Amino acid sequence: MVDFDKVLDRIGHFGRYQGLLYVMACFPILLNGMHFLAVVFVGDTPEHYCRVPGDVQPLNMDRIYDTDTWNNVMNQTIPREKSDDGNMVYSQCERYTTPGDNTSKQRCDDGWIYSKDQYESTVVMTWDLVCDRKWMSRLNQAIFMSGVMSGAVVFGNLADRFGRRKIFIVCMVGECLSGIVNAFLPNYAAWLLFRFLVGFTSNGSYVVAFSYVMEIVGATRRTICGIFVQMWFAGGIMLLSLLAYFIRDWQMLQLIMTLPTLIVIGYWWFLPESPRWLLAQGQNEEAGELISKYAEKNGVELEPGYINEAIELHGPTVMKSEDQHSHRSYGLLDLVRTPNLRKRTLNVCFNWFVNSLVYYGLSLNTSNLGGDDYVNSFTSGAVELPAYVVTVILMERIGRQKTLSGSMVVGGIGCFCTVAVPLSRKDLIPVRTTLAMLGKFGISISFAVIYNYTAELYPTVIRSVAVGVGSMSARIAGIIAPFAIMIGDLWNPLPLLIFGTMSLVAGGLALLLPDTMGKPLMQTIEEAEQLGKKTPTDEEDGKLDGVAATIS
């Protein structure tokens, strides 16, 4: 197996050409950030009350808040009930059977009227996903995350088998088509099906793009490039918040989020395959041509015969492991086939699960923090940007393992502190929001680390499938997250207490993973199995250190 890191030492770890390819691969991740959190606005539930037959009520609630007319209409048609904070509010799911007669009540049987102060339309308003159908609105994000989970495994595996470039373009074509169709569907069931397909293809492109980025840059730039991939996702959340502020109709917002994928489909003619993947597949001639192109675009002159010499020197003839057979196919089972990799995979998957549960739990919960939804969502994305800068510094100074563990502990503490601030105290909303953003800050760091860390913990032959399986674990949590938030209907602090506890547990388990700081990307299963194991030399050094410490 050719040591591509040594080739990059010669042609540049992050030259002009790699920079161009990096931006091309990351642009779709900006779009993914919008799709992943679109439910915050597309699926939001505005204030609503039972529609009463006849002409007693206006067609909607727009522009008549806090007027005597509105209060009079509400008192005649809608009963009051006690809210979670003990205040008396108008019921959203019941009405008086006869207007003006408060002796008899019934469930809403003629639809609802919705406030249009914030939205012209959402999927909740379009299909009345409130009251007895409220669970269906939570199903929206769960179905999307089911697609995301499936896409991570399917496309991660396909990318390892057929190449990064082909599968990346397939994902983008699928994302474009399903996203456009999703804006024009006649019923909620069909909308959920295509929402699944959007998640399926968008996360496929994310997993493949991330592997691609990690493989085209050298060791000295891998950390910063891998982490800054997440900045594009955060940028997508911020862009979504701005677009949603100006576009209050969910169908138009869906179209605007999707149409830029047409640009990415054009990559077919410009984006080359990953040279590292080509070398891992034994396609040395094609890889050699790409290496020459990298060098030329980066302004590096290679000595005649350098590429052939590098391939021969580091080629498969020096390998004595099972991975020397370039024709062998690798897949899911290779993640758990050997003891060390098996334990590592279980730990990594649990960390992905907790990261996703807390990340999406906090992101989807922004409308429950109080204050302006658009500002909260934008801030939720913006807080990730400094988090990723801190991530790069910490990963290079204290390593991946300690950064992952420490940031998850910070995320857990942020969740616990948010619980301590009562939602009923309107004057403390800024404090509550700040503490929630502290939790988001910590979990953003750990989520960024786990992407980078996973790519470094596994060899080239199973790297995409490893990131894919980790991402699948995260998406299982993403499916659960909307329903975990619903637990707050029983007791408001419960979701944050669950998020905080799991963050602390995952932070402890992260300390059992081997650190990869300063190590080149592994190529073979054999290398990956040995990572973190103590060699006889290490054990002897440890004994000598112990003796020296005793003597001193």
From TrEMBL:
InterPro entries: MFS_dom, MFS_sugar_transport-like, MFS_trans_sf. The chain crosses the membrane at residues 20-43, 167-185, 191-213, 225-247, 253-271, 406-423, 435-453, 465-488, 494-513. It is a multi-pass membrane protein. It is found in: Membrane. Residues 21-518 form the Major facilitator superfamily (MFS) profile domain. Gene3D superfamilies: MFS general substrate transporter like domains. Residues 530-552 are annotated as: Disordered. Keywords: Membrane, Transmembrane, Transmembrane helix. GO terms for molecular function: transmembrane transporter activity. PROSITE patterns: MFS (PS50850). This is SLC22A16 protein. It comes from Branchiostoma lanceolatum.
